[in-house]
Amino acid sequence: MRIIAGSKRGMKLLPPKSNETRPITDRAKEALFSVIYKYDMPDGCRVADLFCGTGSMGLECLSRGAEFVTFIDQSRQVVDILNKNIEKAMFVAESKVIRGNIFRIGAPVPHGEDKYDLVFVDPPYVMANDTSENSRVGKLLVMLCDQIADGAIVIARTHKRSEFLDTYGTLKAIDRREWGTMAVTIFQQATEIESETESNEDEQ
Questions:
Q1: Residue 127: helix, strand or coil by DSSP?
Q2: Which CATH superfamily is domain 43-99+113-203 in?
Q3: pLDDT tens digit string along 157-195?
């Protein structure tokens, strides 16, 4: 695993010591960031990397100019490796690491800070077999609606067998890509104007 572009291009990341994580391949990561660039991200963005593992996606964002990344994972062993990777990349000042149950906390916004512009959601594949609104993943996406900025992008990585609903709260699915057995679904947060318009239409 390595950072493939930006200020830390070519830097190798310390690998996980167990099978708890599913690192994304360099080829798939490069293809995904080509899509992300279409939304003028991640340069200058505030990012949350959920189920972050060794931090590959969040560190890639920082290398490519993201303003700040919050990394969240539940495993103590994974977080230990993550912290070492952040230190190795010298992004300690631009990072915050949280160890906790993501399905309960989502992507907490630090007090006084802006909401997130870009969120990666990468749960173990088995946790995304059920993507109904009342599933763990569905409830997480709805929770994120209050933690992200207008127009923010949420990227959910699953097995290609998993298919999401068109909407979760104010999040709307706008794109889907597949690479090998992996699928990525891209959601966008409705803007305040869009939300008001939909609310008015529902009342009529």
A1: helix
A2: Vaccinia Virus protein VP39 (3.40.50.150)
A3: 999 999 999 999 999 999 999 998 999 999 999 886 555
